[in-house]
Amino acid sequence: MITIGQLARYVGVSAKTIRVYHNKGLLPEPPRDASGYRRYDAGHAIDLVKIRTLAEAGVPLARIRELRAATEEEFQETLTRLDADLTERIAALQATQERLRRLAHGRLLALPAEVRAHLDQLPRLGFSERWVELQTDLWILVYATQPGTASALFHEQAQMLTDPVLREMFLDYDHAHDLDPHDPRIDALARRAVQATRARYGTGDLPGQDTGTEIPAMIQAAVNASSPAWQRIDALIREQLGLR
């Protein structure tokens, strides 16, 4: 028979936690001895280990109390589901760890090799250093927040740059950064972008727009914030395409 302090040390929890488990009806509270101390036996220690393990796996205390009264079959089914959930969480954490390790060796390493190669060729195509830095930051954001669709979006844009007409339009967009927002070239560039968009996608949804998140809007806001000219181009394009 051991005290609550000894039980806490043996199992690796605090005495306060054990008292919480008592109050929640998870762990039977033993009677006090003649000295006024509660004495715990091996059964209490085993129960406490089970409760601690379930709690560490993320099971709410109310659910743990229900499991205490569950049949063996129900208990095993719950453990199987918990095991699957933990496996999924571990895989997600490992993926996050890998991204952190890549970032530790340079931010470009957070991107796939094909994206880094694409960014490396942009200066040779005539794009400014400012454009390359912006594209790098935006692709890092896309791959970090939309891993399921990032690759398709990247291939879509990379393929567009193989078209001389579209590439020239993107170059003009890049070089419009420092223009006055009301320069006539801004309106002409917006019209070209709208025509190219309609020719490529028709009246359907545009790639990367319908993601169910605020990420596309955040990306466009980041682009617009760096240039009043770009902001006006975006406003004109959205107005002519009927976008929100």
TrEMBL record:
<keyword id="KW-0238">DNA-binding</keyword>
<dbReference type="InterPro" id="IPR009061">
    <property type="entry name" value="DNA-bd_dom_put_sf"/>
</dbReference>
<dbReference type="InterPro" id="IPR000551">
    <property type="entry name" value="MerR-type_HTH_dom"/>
</dbReference>
<feature type="domain" description="HTH merR-type">
    <location>
        <begin position="1"/>
        <end position="70"/>
    </location>
</feature>
<dbReference type="InterPro" id="IPR047057">
    <property type="entry name" value="MerR_fam"/>
</dbReference>
<dbReference type="GO" id="GO:0003677">
    <property type="term" value="F:DNA binding"/>
</dbReference>
<dbReference type="GO" id="GO:0003700">
    <property type="term" value="F:DNA-binding transcription factor activity"/>
</dbReference>
<dbReference type="Pfam" id="PF00376">
    <property type="entry name" value="MerR"/>
</dbReference>
<protein>
    <submittedName>
        <fullName>MerR family transcriptional regulator</fullName>
    </submittedName>
</protein>
